[in-house]
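Good morning C.,

I know you're traveling, so I'll keep this short. The sequence:
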Amino acid sequence: YQRVREVIAELGYTSSLAARSLRSHRTGVIGLIMPELEDSFCIQVIKGINQAIIAFDYDLLAYTSGSSKRPSKAEREQHYVSLLNGSITDGVILVTPAATHFSTTAPVVAVDPNRDCPGCISVIAANHAGAVSAMEYLISLGHTRIGFITGRPDLLSGEQRLAGYRMALEQAGLPLDPNLIATGDFTRAAGYECTKRLLSLAQPPTAIFAANDQSAFGAIDAARARGRRVPDDLSVIGFDNIPEATYSNPPLTTVDQFIDRMGYAATELLVRLIRGQPSAESVCEMPTELVIRDSCRPVTNHRG
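The tokens, ready to paste straight into the viewer:
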């Protein structure tokens, strides 16, 4: 140990990473594993993580497990966790993980966890409450036939948003029509295909609630392809409030889940675990807020 310090001194190597490692026997590095770096959801998570690593004086090492368009990346995620948490990092943050268990003694925190990973410390939005608020808004505008485009079926967020859709209908005394539920995967392409099917029904919906903003953009694309205008002929609402929602045409009404704050909270949780401060709760639930813009209209104003 003394010789290592002497060699470092001789080389003039004074980086904060090396200094921390010598003092604490930790690397001072946090690992990040996410589906892809170009996805808007992932970008917002990274923004929050970046703020946190600066605040807590850590470095960040990021890996991508593959496109978020393909949910089954479990083996790759498990490999990266085993690799990073062996000696390279002090802990790992996983974003929308496909894997349900990991072989590691170092802490792991998930952002938007898999529904079959009950023991994982995780950060998630109040998806159920957010979905209910979106539905209540559409119902208040007079919509009674509301289509729903689901998210990734393996993620807890997708399951919770569907449950919120169902509950809001029940609370409003509206029937649940299985034909109005289309299976998506959080992608724009799936939102497009789902909306094509919904608008082909004998009694199509007057509004569509998409499980995320990308799916909502796909819904708007499909409506236009069929000669329908949003919101004149079809109301559309999303979930996420990614930056593109503000600048879309029309600006998208959506549920804000404060994605960057989720990234910050996940990093803060992980740092506490690294420092031997166990979390009192296994799940940190972040609040949501309905953001009303221009993509929804009262049903009586829709043009036939």
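Safe travels,
E.
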